[in-house]
Amino acid sequence: MSALLLNAIVANASGPYTSGQTGYDISYPQCPGTSPPPGTFNFGIVGVTHGRPFRANDCLGPEYKVAAQLSTPSLYFNTGYSGAYRRNIRPACSAGPNQAWEIGCSEADYAASQASGLKVAMWWLDVEVGNSWSTSDSTLNQQTIQGAVDRLSSAGLVGVYSTASSWNTITGGTFSPNGSSADWVAGGSCSTSFDGKPVWLSQFTSSGFDNDTAC
Protein backbone atom coordinates (compact mmCIF):
# COMPACT_ATOMS: atom_id res chain seq x y z
CA MET A 1 0.00 0.00 0.00
CA SER A 2 1.37 3.39 -0.92
CA ALA A 3 1.94 6.03 1.71
CA LEU A 4 -0.79 8.60 2.25
CA LEU A 5 0.66 12.09 2.03
CA LEU A 6 -1.37 14.84 3.69
CA ASN A 7 -0.55 17.94 5.66
CA ALA A 8 -1.65 16.68 9.06
CA ILE A 9 -1.77 18.87 12.15
CA VAL A 10 -0.15 17.40 15.24
CA ALA A 11 -2.57 17.70 18.14
CA ASN A 12 -2.35 16.88 21.82
CA ALA A 13 -3.98 13.88 23.44
CA SER A 14 -7.32 15.68 23.76
CA GLY A 15 -7.45 16.47 20.06
CA PRO A 16 -7.42 19.74 18.13
CA TYR A 17 -10.38 21.24 20.03
CA THR A 18 -10.46 23.17 23.29
CA SER A 19 -13.23 22.28 25.70
CA GLY A 20 -16.08 24.78 25.64
CA GLN A 21 -15.28 26.20 22.21
CA THR A 22 -17.97 26.30 19.55
CA GLY A 23 -17.60 25.48 15.87
CA TYR A 24 -19.72 24.72 12.84
CA ASP A 25 -19.82 22.07 10.14
CA ILE A 26 -20.68 22.80 6.54
CA SER A 27 -20.80 20.93 3.23
CA TYR A 28 -22.53 20.72 -0.15
CA PRO A 29 -25.99 21.91 1.07
CA GLN A 30 -24.43 25.30 1.84
CA CYS A 31 -22.92 25.85 -1.63
CA PRO A 32 -21.54 28.18 -2.87
CA GLY A 33 -19.93 28.29 0.57
CA THR A 34 -18.55 31.82 0.38
CA SER A 35 -20.00 32.95 3.73
CA PRO A 36 -19.83 31.37 7.19
CA PRO A 37 -22.97 30.55 9.19
CA PRO A 38 -24.20 33.28 11.54
CA GLY A 39 -22.52 33.29 14.93
CA THR A 40 -19.16 33.45 16.64
CA PHE A 41 -17.03 30.36 16.20
CA ASN A 42 -13.59 29.00 17.03
CA PHE A 43 -13.34 26.27 14.40
CA GLY A 44 -14.97 24.87 11.28
CA ILE A 45 -15.43 21.37 9.88
CA VAL A 46 -15.92 20.94 6.14
CA GLY A 47 -17.46 18.05 4.22
CA VAL A 48 -15.36 16.60 1.42
CA THR A 49 -18.09 14.51 -0.18
CA HIS A 50 -21.53 15.30 -1.55
CA GLY A 51 -23.66 13.16 0.74
CA ARG A 52 -22.39 9.84 -0.66
CA PRO A 53 -19.01 8.10 -0.91
CA PHE A 54 -17.03 8.74 -4.09
CA ARG A 55 -18.95 11.93 -4.89
CA ALA A 56 -17.20 15.29 -4.50
CA ASN A 57 -18.41 18.36 -2.67
CA ASP A 58 -17.77 20.97 -5.36
CA CYS A 59 -17.63 23.69 -2.71
CA LEU A 60 -14.83 22.14 -0.64
CA GLY A 61 -12.36 24.84 -1.74
CA PRO A 62 -14.33 27.96 -0.83
CA GLU A 63 -15.81 26.38 2.30
CA TYR A 64 -12.36 25.33 3.49
CA LYS A 65 -11.02 28.84 2.81
CA VAL A 66 -13.74 30.43 4.96
CA ALA A 67 -13.26 27.91 7.80
CA ALA A 68 -9.48 28.39 7.69
CA GLN A 69 -9.94 31.99 8.75
CA LEU A 70 -10.79 30.64 12.21
CA SER A 71 -8.22 27.85 12.56
CA THR A 72 -7.03 24.81 10.65
CA PRO A 73 -10.27 23.07 9.62
CA SER A 74 -11.17 19.45 10.21
CA LEU A 75 -12.66 17.49 7.32
CA TYR A 76 -15.31 14.78 7.13
CA PHE A 77 -16.51 12.40 4.43
CA ASN A 78 -19.44 10.04 3.89
CA THR A 79 -19.00 6.31 4.31
CA GLY A 80 -21.15 3.34 3.35
CA TYR A 81 -21.06 -0.26 2.17
CA SER A 82 -22.48 -1.60 -1.08
CA GLY A 83 -21.21 -4.41 -3.25
CA ALA A 84 -21.55 -2.00 -6.18
CA TYR A 85 -18.80 0.13 -4.64
CA ARG A 86 -16.27 -2.52 -5.63
CA ARG A 87 -15.95 -0.70 -8.96
CA ASN A 88 -14.57 2.26 -6.99
CA ILE A 89 -11.76 0.35 -5.28
CA ARG A 90 -8.60 2.38 -5.70
CA PRO A 91 -5.12 0.97 -6.42
CA ALA A 92 -3.79 2.00 -3.00
CA CYS A 93 -6.47 -0.15 -1.34
CA SER A 94 -6.69 -3.13 -3.69
CA ALA A 95 -4.56 -5.50 -1.63
CA GLY A 96 -6.65 -5.40 1.52
CA PRO A 97 -7.80 -8.34 3.65
CA ASN A 98 -11.31 -8.34 2.16
CA GLN A 99 -13.47 -6.41 -0.29
CA ALA A 100 -15.43 -4.49 2.34
CA TRP A 101 -12.18 -3.22 3.86
CA GLU A 102 -10.96 -2.22 0.40
CA ILE A 103 -14.18 -0.27 -0.18
CA GLY A 104 -13.81 1.65 3.09
CA CYS A 105 -10.14 2.25 2.42
CA SER A 106 -11.04 3.57 -1.03
CA GLU A 107 -13.69 5.91 0.37
CA ALA A 108 -11.04 7.43 2.60
CA ASP A 109 -8.46 7.48 -0.18
CA TYR A 110 -10.91 9.28 -2.47
CA ALA A 111 -11.66 11.87 0.23
CA ALA A 112 -7.96 12.38 0.84
CA SER A 113 -7.35 12.92 -2.85
CA GLN A 114 -10.06 15.60 -2.92
CA ALA A 115 -8.31 17.36 -0.03
CA SER A 116 -4.82 17.08 -1.49
CA GLY A 117 -2.63 19.94 -0.31
CA LEU A 118 -4.96 21.08 2.46
CA LYS A 119 -3.88 21.16 6.10
CA VAL A 120 -6.26 19.05 8.16
CA ALA A 121 -6.72 19.29 11.92
CA MET A 122 -8.59 15.99 12.02
CA TRP A 123 -10.48 13.57 9.77
CA TRP A 124 -14.00 12.41 10.61
CA LEU A 125 -15.93 9.46 9.13
CA ASP A 126 -19.61 10.23 8.67
CA VAL A 127 -21.45 7.00 9.57
CA GLU A 128 -25.21 7.38 9.09
CA VAL A 129 -28.14 5.15 8.20
CA GLY A 130 -28.99 7.49 5.32
CA ASN A 131 -26.18 5.93 3.29
CA SER A 132 -26.05 2.40 1.87
CA TRP A 133 -25.09 -0.35 4.35
CA SER A 134 -25.51 -4.09 4.54
CA THR A 135 -28.73 -4.96 6.35
CA SER A 136 -27.90 -8.66 6.62
CA ASP A 137 -24.25 -8.70 7.72
CA SER A 138 -22.97 -5.99 10.04
CA THR A 139 -19.46 -7.47 9.72
CA LEU A 140 -19.28 -6.03 6.21
CA ASN A 141 -20.11 -2.61 7.61
CA GLN A 142 -17.53 -2.96 10.36
CA GLN A 143 -14.86 -3.94 7.86
CA THR A 144 -15.72 -0.95 5.68
CA ILE A 145 -15.38 1.45 8.59
CA GLN A 146 -12.13 -0.16 9.67
CA GLY A 147 -10.71 0.15 6.17
CA ALA A 148 -11.45 3.87 6.12
CA VAL A 149 -9.87 4.41 9.53
CA ASP A 150 -6.80 2.39 8.56
CA ARG A 151 -6.28 4.42 5.39
CA LEU A 152 -6.24 7.73 7.27
CA SER A 153 -4.51 6.74 10.49
CA SER A 154 -1.10 7.64 9.07
CA ALA A 155 -2.39 11.13 8.22
CA GLY A 156 -3.17 12.16 11.79
CA LEU A 157 -6.17 11.99 14.06
CA VAL A 158 -9.26 10.10 12.89
CA GLY A 159 -12.67 9.95 14.54
CA VAL A 160 -16.25 8.89 13.82
CA TYR A 161 -19.43 10.97 13.52
CA SER A 162 -22.65 9.09 14.29
CA THR A 163 -25.40 8.51 16.83
CA ALA A 164 -25.93 5.57 19.15
CA SER A 165 -28.97 4.51 17.15
CA SER A 166 -27.19 4.68 13.78
CA TRP A 167 -24.11 2.96 15.15
CA ASN A 168 -26.16 0.12 16.61
CA THR A 169 -28.08 -0.38 13.36
CA ILE A 170 -25.01 -0.28 11.13
CA THR A 171 -22.38 -2.09 13.21
CA GLY A 172 -24.38 -4.14 15.70
CA GLY A 173 -23.49 -1.81 18.54
CA THR A 174 -20.39 -3.48 19.98
CA PHE A 175 -17.84 -2.48 17.34
CA SER A 176 -15.08 0.01 18.18
CA PRO A 177 -12.71 0.64 15.24
CA ASN A 178 -9.01 0.32 15.91
CA GLY A 179 -7.16 3.56 15.30
CA SER A 180 -10.16 5.83 15.81
CA SER A 181 -9.44 8.40 18.51
CA ALA A 182 -12.82 9.90 19.35
CA ASP A 183 -16.53 10.37 18.69
CA TRP A 184 -18.45 13.29 17.27
CA VAL A 185 -22.03 12.80 18.46
CA ALA A 186 -24.95 14.12 16.41
CA GLY A 187 -27.75 15.44 18.59
CA GLY A 188 -26.16 14.00 21.71
CA SER A 189 -24.04 15.17 24.58
CA CYS A 190 -20.45 14.92 25.68
CA SER A 191 -21.30 11.84 27.76
CA THR A 192 -23.01 9.77 25.04
CA SER A 193 -20.22 7.82 23.33
CA PHE A 194 -21.56 5.26 20.86
CA ASP A 195 -18.45 3.08 20.55
CA GLY A 196 -16.59 3.51 23.81
CA LYS A 197 -14.26 6.23 22.53
CA PRO A 198 -14.08 9.67 24.18
CA VAL A 199 -16.52 12.25 22.85
CA TRP A 200 -14.68 15.28 21.49
CA LEU A 201 -17.59 17.04 19.77
CA SER A 202 -21.35 17.27 20.26
CA GLN A 203 -23.47 18.61 17.40
CA PHE A 204 -26.57 20.79 17.68
CA THR A 205 -28.62 22.94 15.29
CA SER A 206 -28.88 26.71 15.52
CA SER A 207 -30.54 29.05 13.00
CA GLY A 208 -30.75 26.18 10.54
CA PHE A 209 -27.03 25.40 10.66
CA ASP A 210 -25.10 22.59 12.31
CA ASN A 211 -23.06 23.86 15.25
CA ASP A 212 -20.66 21.89 17.42
CA THR A 213 -19.48 22.13 21.01
CA ALA A 214 -16.03 20.89 22.00
CA CYS A 215 -16.33 18.58 24.99
Provide structural commentary:
The protein is α/β, with parallel strands linked by helices and 215 residues long. It has one domain (7-214): Glycosidases (TIM Barrel). 22% of the residues lie in helices and 22% in strands. The strands form 2 sheets. The chain has an 8-stranded mixed beta barrel, surrounded by 4 helices. Strands 1-5 form a two-stranded parallel sheet. A hairpin with a 2-residue loop joins strand 9 and strand 10 (209-214). Helix 2 (99-114) crosses helix 3 (138-152). The chain is globular. The termini are far apart.
Map the helices and strands.
Elements: E1 7-8, E2 22-26, E3 43-47, H1 60-67, E4 74-78, H2 99-114, E5 119-120, E6 123-126, H3 138-152, E7 158-162, H4 164-171, E8 182-186, E9 199-206, E10 209-214
Parallel strand pairs: 1-5, 2-3, 3-4, 4-6, 6-7, 7-8, 8-9
Antiparallel strand pairs: 2-10, 9-10
Helix pairs in contact: 2-3
Provide a brief overview of the structure:
The longest helix is centred in the middle third of the chain and has 16 residues, at 99-114. This protein is of the alpha/beta class and 215 residues long. The protein has helices spanning 60-67, 99-114, 138-152, 164-171; strands spanning 7-8, 22-26, 43-47, 74-78, 119-120, 123-126, 158-162, 182-186, 199-206, 209-214.
